Amino acid sequence: MIDLFLYIGLPYIAIIVAIIGCYRRAKYSKYSMTTRSSQFLEDKQLLWGSTPWHIGVIVVLLGHLIAFLLPQVWAAIVSVPWAVFVIETVGVAASILALAGLGTLIYRRVTSARIQAVTTTADLLVVALLFAQIVLGVLSATHFRYGASWSTGTVVPYLWSLLTLQPDMTYVTGFPMLFKLHLIGAWLFILLLPFTRLMHILAVPFQYIWRRPQIVIWNTARRRQQAVAATVAADSRREFLKGAVGVTGATGLLAIGVSNKALNYFKGAAADPEAESALLEKKLRRLELTAEERKYELERQRSSMILVAPYKDLDPLKGKYFIDYKMAPGLAFRGKDGLPVVISAKCTHLGCTVSSTLDENGRVMCPCHVSFFNIFTGQPEGGPAKDPLRKIDWALVDPTGKALITGVAGNKPEGTATPEELAACSLFITKPAPAAV
Length: 437
Fold this sequence. Notes:
Blueprint: H1 2-28, H2 44-69, H3 71-78, H4 81-111, H5 113-117, H6 121-143, H7 147-150, H8 155-163, H9 177-192, H10 221-257, H11 259-267, H12 273-302, E1 305-310, E2 320-323, E3 329-334, E4 340-344, E5 363-366, E6 371-374, E7 394-397, E8 403-407, H13 419-424, E9 426-430
């Protein structure tokens, strides 16, 4: 239910509110669509903050927009390995540039009395959201590489499903938490658009290109009085902040002095015997599950063969999942020659489980980062994965327990069987022979 709201409900709420809110503001309060420039109040730090911020964020947003609006073109570009490296390097560099610029702007807004006087709660909320979004984006790009490549098979289809009113959140519900927070932050950004100065990004003053230059002189008595009043208000705010910091420090020192009592207070009363018994029972259950898993793993290690499926259940297009000797997922297909094709289902990029359905080119796809693998060779054919899927040894065994045909990775299958014998056989995986020393 929470996923349904976050990835379907929240996007539609944000889009509808943004469209209606932007329209009403543009129609009835168009002169409020401004950044309320504070260059008159302070311009040195503004130069070093605003310029890198706008350059960095524009580059990042352009990359996101191209991937969304032209997914096929983008997919063709990122299919080239060096292009992915260049795109991600430029994206991270632009994000760091934007982060540095935004950090300078935040410092300017916090330390300048004049800027504080014109700062609203909405401004602080927007700045915090923007800062969090960029940090999440940089962390996502550095912890989970090749996002420029796999996003065309996950995020882009998800966004287009929302746009075409056929929402499909399965593309993103399996994302790591960093990506989920980054995606939710984007919807919150759109939701706040009509109510903050972010609205200015939709009010591009193209007419300024051909408008005659104007000179603005800010030197009236009323303006001077307003500036003095703003300075007094900002000084009051700073004094309040200083007092708050002092009270917080005194409270911290007091807490340290009575740490024992404070710890006991926050720790709460000791658990009653019934609660302790429930906790011990939960721990015992976890140990039992771990023991069962280890017992299952030991059984597989002691078995020379592990049943996968009857031969008649093998399909040439839909693979059969199983667990191999390494407790990793595997896939079994019926090959074009009627013999089994048995490979590991663990993607060699980051270890995700590949899909079990072949595409028209005889490949399976890893849904995590959109890597494709040819099941007959195991070789990667597009995406960030570079190593092939591991082939697994197998045997076709008749009802009497006799292995009629065996397959060893890297060698041709040995043995023969009639179609009638094959129909009665079952597919087993066999323990690989120990490597020669």
